[in-house]
Amino acid sequence: MRLVSLSPNRGLGAALRAGFDAAQGEWIATLDADLTFEPSALKEMLAAARTQDADLVSGSPFLRPGDLKEVPWSRRLPSLMLNALYRGVFGLAPTSYTPIMRLYRADFLRKLPLRSDGFEINAEIAARTLLEGGRIAEVPVALLTRTSGTSKLHRGRELLRHAALIARLLAGR
Question: What is the mean pLDDT of each run of 10 residues along the chain (173 residues)?
Fold first, then answer.
């Protein structure tokens, strides 16, 4: 494990890109610090990456009934809508474009021209993986409720960022 510090706070996308640059090894994993996804799922994700020769493995709360049951509708509905929008624009697979619970093949990830600074970085990585011919696998992972702290996500700003990202990705085709 390596600590990477950014000052001032430049957003989740900038933090992830800095972490990707500093990471070593064949695989890079990402998950929320608030543990709304179980870290133990990484073992199953690595197995899926190897058996399916995937470049990205996403932990998806949309694959198994009940994996969103702890999440309030005020959080669930925007996520369902954004993921449906990305599936409509970029393809029905994967089921989850926005969650951060991911495992990446490091050499493939580093070739992606990532630009996002906010929470939309996860959708950008998934869409660019598809656009670059990468292979995506998914494993069912429950999304849990936050037990401490508060989210830094601002819905209005993030919706605008997602709209700008989709426009950028479509223009780059």
Answer: 81 93 95 88 97 97 91 84 92 88 97 94 96 96 76 74 93 78
Residue 3 lies inside a defined structural domain of this protein:
no
CB atoms within 10 A of CB 8: 4
pTM of the model: 0.91
Q: From the CA atom positions of the chain, what is the Rg in Å?
A: 15
Number of domains in the chain: 1
CATH number of the domain that residue 143 is part of: 3.90.550.10
